[in-house]
Amino acid sequence: MDNITHSLVGLALGEVVERALPPAPDTTPGRTRRRVLLATGLLASNFPDLDLVLTPLLPAPLGYLIHHRGHTHTLLYALPQVALLLGLLFLLWPGARRLLRHDRTARRAVLGTALLGMVLHLSFDALNVYGVHPFHPFDSRWLYGDLVFIIEPVFWTAFGFALALLAHSRALRWLMLVFFAAMPALFTWLGFLQWGSLAGLAAVASAVVLCHRRGGARAGLAMAVLACVGFVGVQALAGHLARGEIRAALAQMAPASRVLDIPLSSFPANPLCWSFATVTEDARAGTYGVRIGVLSLVPGLTPVSACPARFGGEPGGRAHAIAWKFEQRGSLAAFRSLQQSNCHFDAWLRFARVPALIGGNATDVRFGPPDQPNFSTLPYARRASDPCPWPVAAWGYPRADLLGWK
């Protein structure tokens, strides 16, 4: 997920923990405790992304693909990150140091907030098509939620409004409210959101505000959490339906092929429109196929032609449920030979989930068609004679099935 979402989730976590504790006996330590918990939640929910400093260890794009969402995004390595975070708070913040020394309840609350903040970062990252491998080194396979877009306005709106209403400064409160109200409107005007999505976001914001006014801060925060959990649940059901429709379409298009994977990426704040990719294998022919497309679950209401073009919709298209945008077939033998002979391609395969090969370049078409290079595009042919990349983390191969390993 984006770091605005991580930050809002961390701040909400700090507020929830603070309000779950018994009131502090003195005003000044109470203010310090709240600030420390907010800072701990904020930092813990962003700390794992410090792995971006490791990306220069490998030439692009491998540095980003291999080391981002890498070791810092695992449960095992969350523990030293928590120790580092708490150590920095203790050393650099005199108020936090006094609080942690003399208040046992606050110590436990800060430790719990730091641990849960790390887990929430991994959990939110696991919701989208990019993936995580949180159980490394015990299980280094990538896990994919395929549920929400990597920047999700529902999270911004729910947590943004809930937190804005808790701001002590009137100016900050209104600034936050205006920002989180204006951003969805701007995204809609720019073509990233449908008008129906904007209406849904307005409903979420209204529910959070209403709950806050009637039940106070805890009710507003609870409504924000409920809205986000409910949205993820809707996305899970919609994704299940989407996969069923895509499998049915593939059964007609390629009846001899076995479906290996159907990565899904929803459109922001829109459970009806989905971008998807497919990976299939035809063992008899010795070939594999990758495809990308766009799906609408309710084409009578929102055909693929109405899905926002900024995220892969098909403007001007017919009122169909599915629009196929790219297809490539390749030789399994050639694919496996390339993996064995080209160490750069082999390293890239520790990330790639939907590999497409064109003109000596490899692209993961989850992030765009191969004729439009993106952050995943590797010029494997040009690097064939270069020294092998190192260090390469031992993540599982998403397409071990194409390599004949499972």
TrEMBL record:
Keywords for this protein: Hydrolase, Membrane, Transmembrane, Transmembrane helix
- GO molecular function list: hydrolase activity
Q: Does the keyword Transmembrane helix apply?
A: yes
Q: What is this protein called?
A: Metal-dependent hydrolase
Pfam (any one):
YdjM
The yes or no answer to whether the keyword Hydrolase is present is: yes
- Which parts pass through the membrane? 36-54, 74-93, 105-124, 144-165, 172-189, 219-238
Q: Which InterPro entries match?
A: Transcription_regulator, YdjM-like
